[in-house]
Amino acid sequence: MFRMRLYGQSFTLVAMVGGSLYYQADRNLRYQHWKVKKEIEEREKKERWIKELEARDAEDREYEEKRERAKKAIAAAAAAEEEAQKKGEKDSRGVEAGSVLKAVKGLKDNKEKAK
User: Fold this and answer.
1) Are 96 and 90 in contact (CB under 8 A)?
2) How far apart are CA 69 and CA 105, in angstroms?
3) CA–CA dist 61, 58 (Å, integer)
């Protein structure tokens, strides 16, 4: 009976060591697969972030271009009105030229006083 017990315990130990060796290789493969998958996900996340930043940058550039065009249009209108005021002309509505320019200059003066 003692021999049977010894054989049973020996078999158990051999099975434990063999299973440990077998599953260790499996665990290493799973870990490598997980590592590669994580690297791919991080790379994709970085690419999405870069695309988002490029889109935001394009929107900012577009906004600045619109703003500059508006500034130029306002400056051109003010210059035309100032020139008309010098000539003493009236616009199509019969209003004396220069009234908008005076209002804009008044706003600028108010802003400077507030500072």
Assistant:
1) yes
2) 20
3) 5
Q: Count how many residues are written for the chain.
A: 115
pLDDT per position as a tens digit, 12-42: 999 999 989 888 988 999 999 999 999 999 9
CA distance 107 to 110: 5
Distances (CA, A) of 5 to 2, 14, 93: 5, 14, 115
Identify which of 80, 83, 81, 87 has the alpha carbon closest to the alpha carbon of residue 100.
81
CA–CA gap between residue 54 and residue 95 (Å, rounded): 48
How far CA 68 is from CA of 12, 78, 105, in Å, comes to 82, 15, 19
**pTM for this entry:** 0.48
Number of C-alpha atoms within 13 angstroms, CB side, residue 12? 6
Tens of pLDDT, residues 10-19: 999 999 999 8
What is the dihedral angle through the alpha carbons of 50, 52, 55, 61, rounded to the nearest 10 degrees? -80
Strand ranges for the chain from DSSP E? none
